[in-house]
Amino acid sequence: MTKAELEAYRRRLLALGRRVGREMSELEQEALRGAGGEASGNLSSVPVHPADLGTDNFEEEVSIGLLENQDQLRTAIDDALRRIERGTFGRCENCGQGISRQRLDALPYARHCITCARQLQGPAGR
Q1: Does residue 97 sit in the same domain as residue 85?
Q2: 117 and 78 within one domain
Q3: Which of 38, 45, 61, 68 is the Cys-Cys partner for 34 at CB 3.0 to 4.6 Å?
Q4: Distance of alpha carbon 126 from alpha carbon 30, whole angstroms
Q5: Quick one: 21 and 73 in the same domain?
Q6: Phi, psi of 44, rounded to the nearest 5 degrees
Q7: Does 34 share its domain with 80?
Q8: How many Å apart are CA 13 and CA 123, to the nearest integer?
Q9: How far does CA 102 lie from the centroid of its chain?
Q10: What is the pLDDT of residue 36?
Q11: pLDDT 10s digits, 1-23
C-alpha cells in the first residue's frame, strides 16, 4: 500500500472517529435526559404511569446499547490508526494476508480479511 493510500485511510478513519464521537455525545445526552418532566407536561421528572416507566426504561436501554456499539466502533477506529502507525494496516491479524481494498473501503477499520472474518464469526456469520 502506498503512502498516499495509507494517508487517505488515515484521514477517513480520523473523520469517522470524529463523527462517532459526536454521535456518542448525542446518545449520552439522550440517555441521561430525565424521564417525564415539564416537556411532557409533568411537573415532576418521575413518570407516574407504569407504561411510562416501561417506555422510559426501554428507551434508556436502547440508548445504552447504541452507546456500547459506538464505543466498540471508536475502539476499532483507534486500533486501525495504530496499525497505520505500526505499518501493519491492511494485513489480516489472523493469517497475515492482505485485506482487499474493497473490504477496507467498506470497513477501513477491518482487522481481518473476509475469509478469516467469516471463519471467526462461525456459522452465525454465514
Answers
A1: no
A2: no
A3: 45
A4: 35
A5: yes
A6: -105, 155
A7: yes
A8: 30
A9: 20
A10: 47
A11: 899 999 999 999 999 999 999 99
Q: What is the pLDDT of residues 32-81, one digit of tens each?
A: 665 444 444 445 555 566 666 666 667 777 777 788 889 999 999 999 99
CA distance linking residue 89 with residue 83, whole number of Å: 5
In the chain, the number of structural domains is 2
Indicate the SS3 state at residue 98.
strand
Label residue 124 exposed, middle or buried (CB < 10 Å: 0-12, 13-18, 19+). exposed
Q: Which domain holds residue 99?
A: 91-126
| AA letter at 121 | Q
The cell numbers describing 20, all together, are 462517532
At 80, list the grid cell. 486501525
Is residue 90 within 8 Å of residue 98, measured between CB atoms? yes
* Residues 19, 36 share a domain: yes
Tell me the angle at which helices 50-86 and 3-32 cross, rounded to the nearest 10 degrees. Answer: 160
Joined together, the cell numbers standing for residue 18 give 470524529
